[in-house]
Design goal:
alpha/beta, Endonuclease, Chain A, globular, 2 domains, 7-stranded mixed β-sheet, 19 strands
């Protein structure tokens, strides 16, 4: 697969593992309801142009760049200097107490049941009407003891606030073993090691990237309970800001039971091949701490998974492995598992994301060429001719979206798009549309979520839906019409 960048992640990309919620040919799905999170397509003349990507935890970025700090001689600065410095343990305690701001939902089991069979959810957002959060989840809900008696967990992610996310575990689970899989290097790696030093129950695993510009964007949780196993693929960093006033997406698996002791490890596969794809992704890390989780997965029955996993790993993939990873794997899934669509060229593809990289001097170099070929793939019999490509709509927050958001201009720090890059691809503006999510009450909750879908022209039906971590390297959830 030739992707603009390679990342480790539960997603479809050169180094990420993605989940595609796609219904396979078994069981058949005649029609899917419209997703609850709707990014409506509306033309925009303003596009957010920000500086190069920075730490998502930094809240000092605006739509046009960094805000300068106030003069050190200001009254505010002098008063701050008089304040006693907080100790490290004070900081840990304070972040642990953050979890009380988001008490777990008492009906979390009911929320999951109502979300079946696709199990796609949005995160709770502070500052919107309560009924818009009635089917949404917070990290404390995902880790709630109501979902099972946790024994150990693995957290794959890009950006961490370790004391904060430890505080999101319920008290009784807070010292259980956690494997933290990351892609940090040099100073950032040392900083992460220092963050985890007060927590002896956390083990670090640094993902190795075989290419110079790779990043580890996987956002996945593996949760092992006494009662079974659960896999969670989502779009949020493990930092407080990502779970507060942003729009994020989550896919939560059913509780996968343990296989009988005499079962073969190849048993417990789903109609979508979810188990095999997840195992292949974990083995690609080549670390014993991660492959130990592969062994755990082999011991469980994942047959109830109704999604496809589209994984990405760094490297150059040729021959038979070319269609195993990234958007070419997505293309293969759509060709094999989507049902017939009447006048498919009229069904547009809508791609919504929160970062933009270099896409070339012309749209056809990659975006409306190789990528759109994958996103518009459908089943075609040998007697049918190849169809013309559908329209492509790109949803990306405008400056006004950011200005009027719940977070204000600081939200712009989560939408990196370098000005120099933008000047090299002015053609992109003709594809861009503002973010709008009135149906879910999240128009002012800026989207860190990334979604792709193919829909009927009147928006009444979708052929498939995918949620992912990055624009081109995805943690996907695809719902496919069959």
């Amino acid at each position: 697969m030739a992707s603009a960048q390679a990342k480790w992640s539960v997603s479809s990309s050169e180094d990420e593992a993605d989940v595609s919620l796609t219904s396979s040919k078994r069981p058949p799905i005649d029609k899917l309801e419209r997703p609850k999170m709707k990014s409506e397509v509306s033309d925009s003349d303003e596009t957010l142009v920000d500086e190069d990507e920075t730490d998502p935890a930094t809240a000092s970025k605006t739509a046009s760049g960094a805000i300068k700090e106030k003069d050190g001689n200001s009254q505010q600065s002098r008063e701050k200097q008089k304040e006693p410095k907080a100790t490290r343990m004070d900081s840990v305690k304070r972040r642990h107490e953050d979890s009380f701001l988001h008490p777990p939902c008492e009906d979390v089991c009911g929320v999951l049941q109502r979300g079946a069979p696709f199990n796609f959810f949005l995160t709770r957002v502070e500052g919107i009407a309560g009924f818009f959060n009635s089917q949404a989840l917070h990290l404390t809900d995902i880790l709630s003891p109501l979902l099972g008696t946790l024994r150990q967990s693995a957290q794959f992610n890009y950006c961490f606030d370790v004391p904060w996310f430890v505080g999101q575990y319920p008290h009784e689970f807070r010292s259980l073993p956690v494997l933290l899989v990351h892609g940090e290097h040099r100073e950032n790696n040392l900083r992460l090691v220092k963050q985890t030093s007060p927590f002896p129950h956390i083990t670090l695993c640094q993902a190795k990237l075989d290419i110079a510009f790779g990043t580890h964007h996987t956002k996945m949780m593996l949760l092992l309970y006494e009662e079974g196993l659960r896999v969670v693929i989502h779009t949020a960093n493990l930092i407080s800001a990502d779970w507060h006033q942003k729009t994020q997406g989550i896919w939560i698996s059913p509780l996968f039971p343990r296989l009988q002791p005499d079962s073969k490890t190849s048993e417990g596969e789903s109609p979508t091949g979810f188990k095999a794809d997840l195992l292949a992704y974990l083995f690609a890390y080549h670390f014993s701490s991660v492959t130990a989780w592969a062994t755990i997965i082999e011991e469980h029955d994942l047959s109830e998974a109704r999604v496809f996993l589209v994984a990405s790993v760094p490297g150059r993939h040729i021959g038979s492995s070319k269609h195993r990873w990234g958007h070419l794997h997505l293309r293969k899934i759509l060709r094999e598992c989507t049902g017939p669509v009447i006048n498919p060229s009229t069904w547009p593809v809508v791609a919504q994301f929160s970062s933009i990289g270099s896409l070339g001097a012309e749209s056809g170099k990659w975006l409306t060429g190789e990528l759109l070929d994958s996103l518009s793939a459908i089943y075609i019999s040998r007697h049918e001719a190849l169809l013309e490509r559908p329209h492509l709509h790109l949803v990306y927050p405008s400056v006004d979206n950011v200005r009027t958001s719940l977070e204000g201009y600081p939200a712009g720090g989560s939408f990196p798009y370098g000005q120099q890059t933008a000047q090299k691809q002015p053609w992109l503006r003709s594809y861009l549309h503002r973010w709008q999510a009135d149906v879910s009450g999240r128009t002012r909750a800026m989207p860190h979520i990334k979604t792709y879908l193919r829909m009927r022209p009147d928006s009444s039906e979708i052929a498939w839906f995918m949620v992912t971590r990055s624009p081109m390297d995805m943690e996907h959830t695809i719902h496919a019409r069959t």
